[in-house]
Amino acid sequence: MPAKPDTIAAAKKAANYLIIRTAAIRGIEGKDWYADARTSLSTLCHNEGFNYTTFIKVMGATSPQCPVWMNIRHTIRVMRSLKVHAGDVYAAVAAVPALAGSVRKATIKTLLSEDTSTLGPKTRCFSENLLGNEDMVTLDTWMGQLVGLSAKRSGSVTSKTVSRPYTSTIKAVAQNFGWTPAMVQAACWTYASSKLGNINHGETDLEAAISRAIETA
User: Fold this and answer.
1) Alpha-carbon distance values, 49 to 15, 32, 52, 108, 177 (Å)
2) Most-buried pick from 26, 152, 190, 196 (CB within 10 A)?
3) Cα(15)–Cα(34) distance, rounded to whole angstroms?
């Protein structure tokens, strides 16, 4: 099936070096988001007695269509449930409220796997970035809106039509800046989430998101 017109238009914007470079510069304060997140989430895992790699895999599985604080809350609940159920993945995930069916399945799959391979194109990149692999590029709904996709259609940012030129452009900007691709994406995401749609819906303040997650978990 041929790509829809808005997907083709988004692909053209994603391939536009100037658009991505400008967004990265305008969101430069967020370029170290992943590094900062690794530090903050590692502290959370240490305090709770969680395995960091497992925590990040679950965070990836529970991240779709979810604000950052809620994503972390879901993950904390799953990790605590694993302790209660002595590592029984099926029982632990079943006991966690507010997880959609597809998210439950993804969470179980990633818990049973040894790596991030069972996760989707966006969620795997997100998890890998948080595990320290900054060469992979996370393309979520905000990144979709940055290249002109509507909120409802922004999920198509992970289609090959858009993701291939997008990833290539982000890596080109990264090479030019001397940053990692994840830094460029994080800066673009910071700009998009603060300037598009609902202001600050992207929740760039991770410490506040973690605090809220812990308080409500």
Assistant:
1) 43, 25, 9, 20, 38
2) 190
3) 24
Judgement on whether residues 88 and 102 belong to the same structural domain of the protein:
yes
Q: Do 101 and 44 have their domain in common?
A: yes
Place of tokens 């997650």: 213
pLDDT tens for each residue of 47-101: 999 999 999 999 999 999 888 999 999 999 999 999 999 999 999 999 999 898 9
Give 70-89 as a DSSP string: HHHHHHHHHHHHHHHTTT-H
Domain count, the chain: 2
Question: What's the domain range around 140?
Answer: 5-32+134-200
Q: Which two tokens stand for residue 54?
A: 């497992």
